[in-house]
Amino acid sequence: MSVLRTRPVRPAVLSDDAALGELDRATWSTLHSVQPRPHPPYEPFFGDRSRPEHLLVAEAEDPAGDMRIAGYIRVVAPTPLACHTHVRQIQGLAVADWARGSGVARGLLRAASALARNEGANRMTLRVLGHNAPARALYASEGFVVEGVLPGEFFLGGRYVDDVMMGRSLAL
Q1: Listed residue (118, 116, 122, 69) closest to 94, CA to CA
Q2: Phi and psi at residue 163, to the nearest 5°
Q3: CA triple 157-163-167, angle to 5 deg
Q4: Beta pairing class for 87-95 and 123-129
Q5: How many CB atoms sit inside 10 A of residue 95's CB?
Q6: Can you tell me the distance from the alpha carbon of 100 to that of 87, in angstroms, rounded to the nearest whole number?
Q7: Is residue 92 within 8 Å of 56, Cβ to Cβ?
Q8: 3-class DSSP state of 73
Q9: Which residue in 49, 43, 45, 48 sits closest to 72, CA to CA?
Q10: CB of 100 within 8 A of CB of 63?
Q11: Strands lying side by side in the sheet with 123-129
Protein backbone atom coordinates (compact mmCIF):
# COMPACT_ATOMS: atom_id res chain seq x y z
CA MET A 1 0.00 0.00 0.00
CA SER A 2 1.40 3.36 -1.01
CA VAL A 3 1.36 6.21 1.49
CA LEU A 4 -0.26 9.51 0.59
CA ARG A 5 -0.42 12.69 2.62
CA THR A 6 -4.13 13.06 3.29
CA ARG A 7 -6.62 15.25 5.08
CA PRO A 8 -9.48 13.89 7.18
CA VAL A 9 -12.53 12.77 5.21
CA ARG A 10 -15.02 15.64 5.06
CA PRO A 11 -18.54 16.37 3.83
CA ALA A 12 -18.76 17.56 0.24
CA VAL A 13 -19.56 21.21 -0.48
CA LEU A 14 -21.05 22.86 -3.57
CA SER A 15 -17.65 24.13 -4.67
CA ASP A 16 -16.52 20.47 -5.07
CA ASP A 17 -18.86 20.07 -8.07
CA ALA A 18 -16.28 20.44 -10.86
CA ALA A 19 -13.63 18.28 -9.16
CA LEU A 20 -16.16 15.54 -8.39
CA GLY A 21 -17.47 15.60 -11.94
CA GLU A 22 -13.94 15.30 -13.30
CA LEU A 23 -13.17 12.41 -10.91
CA ASP A 24 -16.40 10.65 -11.83
CA ARG A 25 -15.64 10.88 -15.56
CA ALA A 26 -12.00 9.84 -15.10
CA THR A 27 -12.93 6.73 -13.13
CA TRP A 28 -15.88 5.64 -15.29
CA SER A 29 -15.70 1.96 -16.24
CA THR A 30 -18.03 -0.96 -16.94
CA LEU A 31 -16.26 -2.60 -14.01
CA HIS A 32 -18.50 -0.57 -11.71
CA SER A 33 -20.95 1.52 -13.74
CA VAL A 34 -24.14 0.52 -15.50
CA GLN A 35 -24.59 4.04 -16.88
CA PRO A 36 -23.33 4.95 -20.37
CA ARG A 37 -19.93 6.64 -20.59
CA PRO A 38 -20.45 10.39 -20.07
CA HIS A 39 -19.93 12.68 -23.06
CA PRO A 40 -19.80 16.48 -23.33
CA PRO A 41 -21.56 18.66 -22.60
CA TYR A 42 -21.31 17.35 -19.05
CA GLU A 43 -24.11 17.81 -16.54
CA PRO A 44 -23.17 19.27 -13.14
CA PHE A 45 -22.17 16.59 -10.65
CA PHE A 46 -24.63 17.85 -8.07
CA GLY A 47 -28.31 17.69 -8.92
CA ASP A 48 -31.60 16.30 -7.67
CA ARG A 49 -30.22 12.78 -7.20
CA SER A 50 -26.80 13.69 -5.85
CA ARG A 51 -26.55 16.53 -3.37
CA PRO A 52 -23.51 17.63 -1.34
CA GLU A 53 -25.06 16.33 1.89
CA HIS A 54 -25.03 12.81 0.39
CA LEU A 55 -21.28 12.73 -0.14
CA LEU A 56 -18.08 12.48 1.81
CA VAL A 57 -14.80 13.31 0.10
CA ALA A 58 -11.20 12.36 0.72
CA GLU A 59 -8.40 14.73 -0.17
CA ALA A 60 -4.81 13.70 -0.73
CA GLU A 61 -1.61 15.01 -2.22
CA ASP A 62 -1.42 14.02 -5.89
CA PRO A 63 1.85 13.09 -7.65
CA ALA A 64 2.45 16.77 -8.53
CA GLY A 65 2.28 17.70 -4.84
CA ASP A 66 -1.15 19.37 -5.02
CA MET A 67 -3.81 18.61 -2.43
CA ARG A 68 -7.02 17.62 -4.23
CA ILE A 69 -10.01 15.32 -4.08
CA ALA A 70 -8.81 11.73 -4.26
CA GLY A 71 -12.16 10.02 -3.81
CA TYR A 72 -15.76 10.21 -2.76
CA ILE A 73 -18.51 8.04 -1.33
CA ARG A 74 -22.23 8.68 -1.76
CA VAL A 75 -24.42 7.44 1.10
CA VAL A 76 -28.18 7.90 1.24
CA ALA A 77 -31.31 6.55 2.86
CA PRO A 78 -32.42 3.91 0.34
CA THR A 79 -36.08 4.98 0.52
CA PRO A 80 -38.07 7.80 2.12
CA LEU A 81 -40.10 5.30 4.19
CA ALA A 82 -40.16 5.83 7.96
CA CYS A 83 -39.74 2.08 8.48
CA HIS A 84 -36.46 2.22 6.53
CA THR A 85 -34.67 5.07 8.33
CA HIS A 86 -32.32 2.67 10.12
CA VAL A 87 -30.59 1.80 6.82
CA ARG A 88 -28.05 3.72 4.75
CA GLN A 89 -27.02 2.66 1.27
CA ILE A 90 -23.76 3.30 -0.54
CA GLN A 91 -24.69 4.47 -4.03
CA GLY A 92 -21.30 5.44 -5.34
CA LEU A 93 -17.64 5.14 -4.46
CA ALA A 94 -14.82 6.44 -6.64
CA VAL A 95 -11.09 6.82 -6.11
CA ALA A 96 -8.68 8.55 -8.49
CA ASP A 97 -6.23 6.24 -10.24
CA TRP A 98 -3.28 8.06 -8.63
CA ALA A 99 -4.72 7.39 -5.14
CA ARG A 100 -5.67 3.72 -5.52
CA GLY A 101 -4.06 1.26 -3.15
CA SER A 102 -3.41 3.90 -0.51
CA GLY A 103 -6.40 3.30 1.77
CA VAL A 104 -8.61 6.11 0.43
CA ALA A 105 -11.59 3.81 -0.29
CA ARG A 106 -11.26 2.10 3.09
CA GLY A 107 -11.12 5.48 4.85
CA LEU A 108 -14.23 6.63 2.99
CA LEU A 109 -16.10 3.42 3.91
CA ARG A 110 -15.19 3.80 7.56
CA ALA A 111 -16.13 7.49 7.65
CA ALA A 112 -19.47 6.71 5.96
CA SER A 113 -20.21 3.99 8.51
CA ALA A 114 -19.38 6.31 11.40
CA LEU A 115 -21.57 9.06 9.95
CA ALA A 116 -24.46 6.63 9.42
CA ARG A 117 -24.14 5.41 13.02
CA ASN A 118 -24.20 9.03 14.25
CA GLU A 119 -27.40 9.56 12.25
CA GLY A 120 -29.00 6.58 14.02
CA ALA A 121 -28.59 3.98 11.30
CA ASN A 122 -27.72 0.44 12.31
CA ARG A 123 -27.35 -1.14 8.88
CA MET A 124 -25.45 -0.33 5.66
CA THR A 125 -26.12 -1.87 2.25
CA LEU A 126 -24.73 -1.58 -1.27
CA ARG A 127 -24.87 -3.10 -4.72
CA VAL A 128 -21.74 -4.09 -6.61
CA LEU A 129 -21.26 -5.66 -10.01
CA GLY A 130 -20.31 -9.32 -9.74
CA HIS A 131 -17.17 -8.98 -11.88
CA ASN A 132 -15.76 -6.15 -9.71
CA ALA A 133 -13.51 -8.40 -7.62
CA PRO A 134 -11.40 -5.58 -6.09
CA ALA A 135 -14.48 -3.75 -4.76
CA ARG A 136 -16.08 -6.96 -3.49
CA ALA A 137 -12.88 -7.88 -1.64
CA LEU A 138 -12.67 -4.42 -0.06
CA TYR A 139 -16.31 -4.54 1.06
CA ALA A 140 -15.87 -8.05 2.48
CA SER A 141 -12.77 -6.92 4.40
CA GLU A 142 -14.90 -4.16 5.96
CA GLY A 143 -17.58 -6.60 7.17
CA PHE A 144 -20.01 -6.61 4.25
CA VAL A 145 -21.47 -9.98 3.28
CA VAL A 146 -23.30 -11.07 0.15
CA GLU A 147 -27.03 -11.03 0.88
CA GLY A 148 -28.32 -11.67 -2.61
CA VAL A 149 -27.38 -12.01 -6.24
CA LEU A 150 -29.37 -11.13 -9.34
CA PRO A 151 -27.68 -13.32 -11.98
CA GLY A 152 -27.04 -11.70 -15.36
CA GLU A 153 -28.90 -8.54 -14.35
CA PHE A 154 -26.86 -6.24 -16.60
CA PHE A 155 -25.37 -6.56 -20.09
CA LEU A 156 -22.07 -4.66 -20.03
CA GLY A 157 -19.11 -4.79 -22.37
CA GLY A 158 -20.62 -7.64 -24.35
CA ARG A 159 -21.44 -9.93 -21.43
CA TYR A 160 -24.02 -10.50 -18.74
CA VAL A 161 -22.97 -9.36 -15.28
CA ASP A 162 -24.47 -10.22 -11.88
CA ASP A 163 -25.80 -7.56 -9.53
CA VAL A 164 -24.58 -8.44 -6.02
CA MET A 165 -26.29 -7.07 -2.92
CA MET A 166 -24.11 -6.75 0.17
CA GLY A 167 -24.83 -5.49 3.64
CA ARG A 168 -23.50 -5.23 7.17
CA SER A 169 -24.54 -4.27 10.64
CA LEU A 170 -23.27 -0.96 11.97
CA ALA A 171 -23.41 -2.16 15.57
CA LEU A 172 -20.06 -1.76 17.31
Answers
A1: 69
A2: -105, 115
A3: 145
A4: parallel
A5: 24
A6: 28
A7: no
A8: strand
A9: 45
A10: no
A11: 10-11, 55-61, 67-76, 87-95, 123-129, 159-169, 145-156
Say if residue 1's pLDDT is above 70.
no
Cβ atoms of 69 and 5 closer than 8 Å: no
Answer whether 128's CB lies under 8 Å from 32's CB.
Answer: yes
What are the tens digits of pLDDT across the range 78-135?
A: 999 999 999 999 999 999 999 999 999 999 999 999 999 999 999 999 999 999 999 9
> CA dihedral in degrees (14, 16, 17, 22; nearest 10)?
180
Do 129 and 34 meet the contact criterion of CB atoms below 8 Å apart? yes
CA gap 25, 17 in Å, rounded: 12
C-alpha dist (Å) from residue 36 to 11, 33, 48, 50, 126? 27, 8, 19, 17, 20
Question: Which of 98, 108, 101, 70 has the alpha carbon at shortest distance from 2?
Answer: 101
Instruction: Report the C-alpha gap between 56 and 1 in whole angstroms.
Output: 22
- β strands within 43-158, DSSP E: 55-61, 67-76, 87-95, 123-129, 145-156
End-to-end CA distance of the chain: 27
